[in-house]
Amino acid sequence: EFDGGLEQAFASVSDATNRKGDPELTTAMELIAEMLAPPESSQALALRNIAAQFLNMEAAAQGDAFQKVEEIVKSATAGDLKDHTDEYLVAMRGIMNQGKSFVKQSIIQAVGAVKGRERTEKRKLPSGDRKQFDTHVGTLMQFLRPAERLELELHILASDERTDL
Prior knowledge:
Shape: globular
Number of strands: 0
Protein backbone atom coordinates (compact mmCIF):
# COMPACT_ATOMS: atom_id res chain seq x y z
CA GLU A 1 0.00 0.00 0.00
CA PHE A 2 1.23 3.50 -0.86
CA ASP A 3 -0.03 6.24 1.44
CA GLY A 4 1.47 8.83 -0.94
CA GLY A 5 -0.77 7.66 -3.77
CA LEU A 6 0.18 7.19 -7.40
CA GLU A 7 3.20 9.48 -7.17
CA GLN A 8 4.72 7.42 -4.36
CA ALA A 9 3.97 4.20 -6.24
CA PHE A 10 5.75 5.48 -9.35
CA ALA A 11 8.70 6.66 -7.27
CA SER A 12 8.98 3.22 -5.69
CA VAL A 13 8.86 1.46 -9.06
CA SER A 14 11.37 3.95 -10.46
CA ASP A 15 13.76 3.24 -7.58
CA ALA A 16 13.39 -0.50 -8.18
CA THR A 17 14.05 0.04 -11.87
CA ASN A 18 17.24 1.94 -11.11
CA ARG A 19 18.43 -0.66 -8.60
CA LYS A 20 17.74 -3.71 -10.73
CA GLY A 21 18.54 -2.28 -14.17
CA ASP A 22 15.84 -4.48 -15.73
CA PRO A 23 15.50 -3.37 -19.38
CA GLU A 24 11.85 -4.51 -19.59
CA LEU A 25 10.92 -2.56 -16.50
CA THR A 26 12.82 0.47 -17.82
CA THR A 27 10.96 0.29 -21.13
CA ALA A 28 7.62 -0.04 -19.34
CA MET A 29 8.37 2.99 -17.14
CA GLU A 30 9.32 5.05 -20.20
CA LEU A 31 6.07 4.06 -21.90
CA ILE A 32 4.01 5.01 -18.85
CA ALA A 33 5.85 8.34 -18.57
CA GLU A 34 5.13 9.11 -22.23
CA MET A 35 1.45 8.23 -21.81
CA LEU A 36 1.08 10.44 -18.73
CA ALA A 37 3.09 13.35 -20.11
CA PRO A 38 1.13 16.42 -21.18
CA PRO A 39 0.53 16.63 -24.91
CA GLU A 40 3.29 18.36 -26.83
CA SER A 41 2.80 21.34 -29.08
CA SER A 42 3.41 20.83 -32.78
CA GLN A 43 6.60 22.87 -32.40
CA ALA A 44 7.90 20.67 -29.58
CA LEU A 45 7.07 17.56 -31.60
CA ALA A 46 8.87 19.01 -34.63
CA LEU A 47 11.96 19.67 -32.49
CA ARG A 48 11.97 16.11 -31.15
CA ASN A 49 11.62 14.67 -34.65
CA ILE A 50 14.44 16.81 -36.01
CA ALA A 51 16.71 15.87 -33.10
CA ALA A 52 15.97 12.16 -33.48
CA GLN A 53 17.14 12.25 -37.10
CA PHE A 54 19.86 14.90 -36.92
CA LEU A 55 22.91 12.73 -36.23
CA ASN A 56 22.22 10.59 -39.29
CA MET A 57 21.65 13.50 -41.68
CA GLU A 58 24.10 14.63 -44.33
CA ALA A 59 25.62 18.10 -43.85
CA ALA A 60 23.17 19.78 -46.25
CA ALA A 61 20.17 18.22 -44.51
CA GLN A 62 21.59 19.28 -41.14
CA GLY A 63 21.81 22.85 -42.45
CA ASP A 64 18.16 22.72 -43.54
CA ALA A 65 17.11 21.28 -40.19
CA PHE A 66 19.06 23.99 -38.39
CA GLN A 67 17.15 26.64 -40.36
CA LYS A 68 13.83 25.01 -39.45
CA VAL A 69 14.74 25.15 -35.77
CA GLU A 70 15.78 28.80 -36.15
CA GLU A 71 12.29 29.48 -37.52
CA ILE A 72 10.74 27.72 -34.54
CA VAL A 73 12.94 29.84 -32.24
CA LYS A 74 11.63 33.02 -33.86
CA SER A 75 8.02 31.97 -33.33
CA ALA A 76 8.51 30.54 -29.82
CA THR A 77 7.25 32.59 -26.93
CA ALA A 78 9.14 32.99 -23.70
CA GLY A 79 9.14 30.02 -21.38
CA ASP A 80 10.02 26.36 -21.58
CA LEU A 81 9.72 26.02 -25.37
CA LYS A 82 11.98 29.03 -25.90
CA ASP A 83 14.57 27.57 -23.50
CA HIS A 84 14.41 24.23 -25.30
CA THR A 85 14.69 25.71 -28.79
CA ASP A 86 17.84 27.56 -27.78
CA GLU A 87 19.27 24.31 -26.41
CA TYR A 88 18.47 22.52 -29.68
CA LEU A 89 20.38 25.16 -31.64
CA VAL A 90 23.39 24.87 -29.32
CA ALA A 91 23.37 21.08 -29.71
CA MET A 92 22.99 21.26 -33.47
CA ARG A 93 25.86 23.75 -33.80
CA GLY A 94 28.03 21.50 -31.66
CA ILE A 95 27.25 18.46 -33.78
CA MET A 96 27.88 20.32 -37.04
CA ASN A 97 31.19 21.75 -35.75
CA GLN A 98 32.54 18.88 -33.64
CA GLY A 99 30.84 15.77 -34.97
CA LYS A 100 28.51 13.11 -33.63
CA SER A 101 30.48 12.57 -30.43
CA PHE A 102 29.54 16.10 -29.28
CA VAL A 103 26.25 14.92 -27.78
CA LYS A 104 27.61 12.15 -25.56
CA GLN A 105 30.66 14.16 -24.54
CA SER A 106 28.50 17.15 -23.61
CA ILE A 107 26.17 15.01 -21.49
CA ILE A 108 29.05 13.31 -19.68
CA GLN A 109 30.70 16.68 -19.08
CA ALA A 110 27.46 18.27 -17.79
CA VAL A 111 26.72 15.36 -15.44
CA GLY A 112 30.29 15.39 -14.16
CA ALA A 113 30.18 19.13 -13.53
CA VAL A 114 26.92 18.88 -11.58
CA LYS A 115 28.09 15.91 -9.52
CA GLY A 116 31.34 17.72 -8.73
CA ARG A 117 29.48 20.86 -7.74
CA GLU A 118 27.10 18.88 -5.53
CA ARG A 119 30.03 17.12 -3.83
CA THR A 120 31.87 20.39 -3.30
CA GLU A 121 28.83 22.24 -1.98
CA LYS A 122 27.59 19.15 -0.10
CA ARG A 123 24.04 19.74 -1.32
CA LYS A 124 21.82 19.13 -4.31
CA LEU A 125 21.51 21.75 -7.02
CA PRO A 126 19.06 24.58 -6.35
CA SER A 127 15.80 24.07 -8.26
CA GLY A 128 16.54 26.75 -10.88
CA ASP A 129 19.94 25.29 -11.67
CA ARG A 130 18.43 21.79 -11.69
CA LYS A 131 15.79 22.87 -14.19
CA GLN A 132 18.47 24.38 -16.44
CA PHE A 133 20.54 21.19 -16.19
CA ASP A 134 17.51 18.99 -16.93
CA THR A 135 16.64 21.13 -19.97
CA HIS A 136 20.21 20.96 -21.27
CA VAL A 137 20.74 17.23 -20.79
CA GLY A 138 17.18 16.34 -21.77
CA THR A 139 17.55 18.21 -25.04
CA LEU A 140 20.86 16.54 -25.81
CA MET A 141 19.32 13.13 -25.07
CA GLN A 142 16.72 13.76 -27.79
CA PHE A 143 19.50 13.45 -30.37
CA LEU A 144 20.28 9.87 -29.30
CA ARG A 145 18.41 6.68 -30.09
CA PRO A 146 16.77 5.03 -27.04
CA ALA A 147 19.42 2.30 -26.96
CA GLU A 148 22.18 4.93 -27.03
CA ARG A 149 20.48 6.82 -24.20
CA LEU A 150 20.33 3.70 -22.06
CA GLU A 151 23.95 2.84 -22.86
CA LEU A 152 25.04 6.35 -21.89
CA GLU A 153 23.01 6.29 -18.68
CA LEU A 154 24.58 2.95 -17.73
CA HIS A 155 28.05 4.36 -18.51
CA ILE A 156 27.37 7.36 -16.26
CA LEU A 157 26.04 5.12 -13.47
CA ALA A 158 29.07 2.85 -13.73
CA SER A 159 31.43 5.82 -13.52
CA ASP A 160 29.50 7.08 -10.47
CA GLU A 161 29.96 3.73 -8.76
CA ARG A 162 33.71 3.81 -9.44
CA THR A 163 33.89 7.35 -8.07
CA ASP A 164 31.99 6.43 -4.90
CA LEU A 165 34.43 3.66 -3.98
